C-alpha cells in the first residue's frame, strides 16, 4: 500500500528519488503514466497489468474509452530505478504536469502519484475544509 507525502528534487537530467517506502513495492515492469487530476502515477507491475486489462475490456467503440486509453498509454514509461533509487521522468511527462525542480510524491493506496508542488498544495488545501470533505465524501458510502 502506498501512503504518505514526500517532497524531492528533480535533478537536471529529470530524475527523481523514489521514497524508500515506495521502492520496496516497485518491481521490474512497474510503470509511470499520466494520471487524473494533472499528476503522474507510479503503478506496480500487478497494478499496471490490472489497469491494462480493464482498459482492454472497454468497448473500443466508446469515444471516452479510447480517449482514456490514449491518455494513459501515450504518457507511460517503465519505472526503471537506478542504484540510488531514482527514476527518470522524460521531459514530455514532466512538462505535462508542470514539474520543474521539485516534486511531491503522494501515496494513493494502490499507486503513488507525482505532483508539481504548487498543484499539490492547491489540491491539498482543498482537503483542509472539513465541510467540503464531508460533502465530497457523502455519496461514497464510507
List the helices and strands and how they pair.
Elements: E1 5-9, E2 15-17, H1 20-23, E3 31-35, E4 39-43, H2 45-57, H3 63-74, E5 76-78, E6 86-88, H4 91-97, E7 102-108, E8 111-115, H5 117-126, H6 130-137
Antiparallel strand pairs: 1-7, 2-6, 3-4, 3-5, 4-8, 7-8
Write a structural description.
It is a single chain. The protein has helices spanning 20-23, 45-57, 63-74, 91-97, 117-126, 130-137, and strands at residues 5-9, 15-17, 31-35, 39-43, 76-78, 86-88, 102-108, 111-115. The protein has 142 residues and is α+β, with helices and mostly antiparallel strands. The strands form two sheets. A six-stranded antiparallel sheet has the order 1-7-8-4-3-5. The longest helix is centred in the middle third of the chain and has 13 residues, at 45-57. The two termini are 19 Å apart.
User: Outline, from the CA principal axes?
Assistant: globular
DSSP E strands, number: 8
> What spatial order of strands do you see in the largest sheet?
1-7-8-4-3-5
N/C terminus separation = 19 Å
Round the mean pLDDT to the nearest integer and report it: 94
Helix segment tally:
6
| Major sheet details | 6 strands, antiparallel
Order of helices and strands: EEHEEHHEEHEEHH
Rg on CA atoms, Å = 16 Å
Approximately how much helix is present in the residues?
Answer: 25-40%
Q: Helix/strand/pairing class, anyone?
A: alpha+beta
Percentage of residues in strands: 25-35%
Amino acid at each position: 500500500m502506498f501512503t504518505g507525502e514526500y517532497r524531492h528534487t528533480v535533478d537536471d537530467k529529470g530524475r527523481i528519488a523514489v521514497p524508500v517506502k515506495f521502492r520496496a513495492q516497485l518491481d521490474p515492469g512497474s510503470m509511470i503514466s499520466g494520471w487524473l487530476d494533472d499528476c503522474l502515477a507510479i503503478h506496480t507491475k500487478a497494478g499496471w497489468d490490472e489497469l491494462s486489462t480493464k482498459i482492454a475490456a472497454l468497448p473500443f467503440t466508446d469515444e471516452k474509452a479510447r480517449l482514456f486509453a490514449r491518455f494513459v498509454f501515450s504518457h507511460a514509461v517503465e519505472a526503471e530505478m537506478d542504484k540510488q533509487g531514482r527514476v527518470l521522468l522524460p521531459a514530455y511527462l514532466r512538462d505535462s504536469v508542470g514539474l520543474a525542480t521539485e516534486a511531491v510524491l503522494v501515496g494513493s493506496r494502490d499507486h503513488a502519484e507525482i505532483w508539481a508542488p504548487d498543484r499539490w498544495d492547491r489540491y491539498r488545501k482543498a482537503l483542509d475544509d472539513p465541510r467540503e470533505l464531508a460533502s465530497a465524501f457523502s455519496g461514497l458510502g464510507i
